[in-house]
Write a structure and sequence with these properties.
This protein is an alpha/beta fold and 657 residues long. Helix content is 29%, strand content 12%. InterPro entries: HPAT-like, HPAT/SRGT1-like.
């Protein structure tokens, strides 16, 4: 393990200027030493027996989202392995969490280290080549060939060894287009290597793995470090990296469209071998695809980021293509879950109305979305100060904390506040409404983060924990705060555009926003509804700056989720006068008073505290206390802000725009 880390770190320190030749020589040396990594003739591994067994390997994390997919995949591997026509050998889940998880006894697993902190550049897929490199170095692999699979693969027909005598097999992904990106490709595949058409339109999966993993690691890191390449290739970057690495080794692939199918685009199963269920399947009740719009019937793996899908998913309506029906009806999902349950391996409970909460005292993760603007930074610093003060108090169920920074890059608070950097929406997609980045940020974070807690509290930068916060969820319902200005019933005409009558009465939509409450696994729906609402002029005009709050309320209702409405969740000065036993101060409103202690809302007061007065830099230390007669809630707010600013280092110098 140490030798692999040394190699990778050396490549990084030298800026990846080590040539491919060195990496090839390293593999040849392994061969000379008797550690045969396979034969290599400059054009690809010589495959001497197309019926020879291959090892099935899948990289994975210990997150619930990865685990339930791996369990389904492994079930169907076992069902298909010994069928006539199959050349499957053994199976390994390569777990790059660095620690064991609860599936070690269920699925053959090899634990490797994740990339050192920060080296994944907030792109978790970079761990994939690094994980394979460690596994290939350390594992005892009986088979000569390897199939790299993904957790969202299901073996639908027995899979033979598809490689020809001189070429491995690969699947041609329609979105991997080397020739259309020649300018960028030439940074990594120089002209002297040959035409760009030498780079096959493949990803890293599925196909029979060649011994090019060190080059794959190298090219992946170099691509991620190049801003133009990173922007152009996005989530497909490490797939392009594998295609380039293959070409640098002179490898051409037999492109097999029958390697897999991808519902809903591929309509028939036929003789294809793998279902890749990466895309959401949304249909109306007429069986028509509504892609980009939440369907009246849907199956989307991203709906289950925090726990597994329910048992007995409803069958799609008539008219839906065979591939989608096969995914659900032919016991690919449903039967597997029943069988796992019979075997005592319960994939988790879900009653169709919300996550079953079995322990209301269980810890919850505190997450806040933020930007790198000074206005957001100073609020986050105050919030995090009071989180730390409250976290371990009696009665608190707070777990860890994450600031989800949707600026696409780190800022000066990275070492002060635990932060996960995600991308903002692509330019123009926020429609000038920056809050649309919030659901998009949460979706990215939930996809890639390692979250120890089972529950999540979505907080805002302008929240201060004023009393220790327990887990307020009841046994069957998450908790939410009833915002007085979220009025679904008074906007029924608009609501019906997004919550059709067949879903139930509009009163099913709770008067909540997206914060604060314990987050359910509805982030993809929240993103979808937010964008649809913003694109509808009538809705956009009616809901204004609270549009994405309505979107979350609708998304919750579409998932059948009802909330326990807790007015004690938070207070909002100056309207709420007393703190009492409430848990969070939400200082979103300006507090304006005359010197008699009378509220002058709508008119600048002789004394005031308004967060919007500090858009470009933090408020000063020791803000003057309000005059006598001002409610306790406002006095408490100012005292808590003053305490935080007095104790946070570099308060007035660190965060200024």
């Amino acid at each position: 393990m140490g030798r692999i880390k040394s190699l990778l770190m050396l490549l990084m320190v030298l800026g990846f200027f080590i040539g491919t030749y060195n990496l090839v020589c390293m593999m040849i040396e392994h061969n000379k030493a008797g550690n045969d990594l396979g034969s290599f003739d400059g054009k690809g591994m010589e495959i001497v027996n197309t019926k020879e067994k291959f090892h099935v390997a899948v990289t994975a994390t210990d997150a619930a989202y990865s685990q339930w997919q791996c369990r389904i995949m492994y079930y169907w591997y076992k069902k298909s392995k010994d069928m006539p026509g199959s050349a499957m050998g053994k199976f390994t889940r390569i777990l790059y969490s660095g620690t064991d998880d609860q599936l070690m006894n269920e699925i053959p697993t090899f634990v490797v280290d994740p990339l050192p902190e920060g080296l994944d550049r907030v792109y978790i897929a970079l761990n994939k080549p690094w994980a394979f490199l460690q596994w290939l170095e350390e594992a005892q692999i009986d088979e000569e060939y390897i199939l790299m699979a993904e957790p969202d693969h299901i073996f639908v027909n027995p899979l033979p060894n598809l490689a020809s005598r001189n070429e491995p097999a690969g699947y041609p992904f329609f979105y991997i287009k080397p020739a259309e990106n020649e300018k960028i490709m030439r940074k990594f595949y120089p002209k002297e290597n040959g035409p760009v058409t030498n780079v096959d339109p493949i990803g890293n999966s599925p196909y029979l793995l060649e011994e090019i993993t060190p080059t794959w690691v190298n090219v992946s890191m170099r691509m991620k470090d190049d801003p133009e390449t990173d922007k152009a290739f996005g989530l497909g970057l490490e797939m392009y990296a594998y295609a380039v690495a293959s070409a640098l080794h002179g490898i051409k692939h037999t492109l097999r469209k029958d390697f897999m199918l991808q519902p809903p685009w591929d309509l028939d199963v036929g003789k294809k071998f793998i279902i890749h269920f990466t895309y959401g399947c949304d249909y109306n009740l007429k069986g028509q695809l509504t892609y980009g719009k939440i369907g009246e019937w849907r199956f989307d793996k991203r709906s289950y980021l925090m726990h597994p899908p329910p048992k007995n998913i409803s069958l799609p309506p008539p008219g839906v293509p065979e591939s989608v029906i096969f995914l659900v009806e032919q016991k690919v999902v449903v039967y597997m879950m029943i069988e796992h349950n019979k075997a005592g391996n319960d994939l988790g409970s879900f009653d169709g109305k919300g996550m079953e909460i079995i322990n209301p005292k269980a810890k919850f993760h505190v997450a806040v979305t933020a930007t790198d603007a000074a206005y957001s930074q100073w609020q986050c610093r105050i919030m995090y100060y009071w989180y730390k003060k409250s976290k371990d108090m009696p009665g608190s169920a707070m777990g860890k904390f994450t600031r989800i920074l949707h600026s696409g890059r780190g800022d000066q608070l990275m070492n002060e506040i635990p932060t996960s950097v995600v991308d903002p929406l692509p330019e123009g997609l926020d429609r000038g409404y920056i809050v649309l980045n919030r659901p998009w940020a949460f979706l990215q974070w939930l996809e890639k983060a390692q979250i120890d807690e089972e529950y999540i509290l979505m907080a805002e930068p302008d929240h201060i924990f004023v009393n220790p916060l327990p887990n307020l969820a009841s046994e069957n319902e998450p908790a939410g705060y009833p915002f007085f200005y979220i009025k679904p019933a008074e906007n029924e005409k608009i609501m019906r555009k997004f919550y059709p009558e067949e879903n139930g009465p509009v009163t099913d939509v709770d008067p909540i926003g997206n914060s604060p409450y314990l987050l359910e696994e509805i982030a993809p729906t929240w993103v979808n509804v937010s964008l649809r609402m913003k694109d509808d002029p009538e809705t956009d005009k009616a809901f204004g700056w609270v549009l994405e709050m309505y979107a979350y309320a609708v998304a919750s209702a579409l998932h059948g989720i009802k909330h326990t409405l807790r007015k004690d969740f938070m207070l909002q000065p100056p309207w709420d006068l007393d703190v009492g036993k409430k848990f969070i101060i939400h200082f979103t409103y300006g507090c304006d008073y005359n010197l008699k202690g009378q509220l002058t809302y709508g008119k600048i007061g002789e004394w005031r505290f308004d967060k919007r007065s500090y858009l470009m830099g933090p408020p000063p230390k020791n803000i003057s206390l309000p005059p006598p007669g001002v409610p306790e809630s406002v006095v408490r707010l100012v005292k808590m802000v003053n305490e935080a600013t007095a104790n946070i280092p570099n308060w007035e110098s660190l965060n200024r725009s």
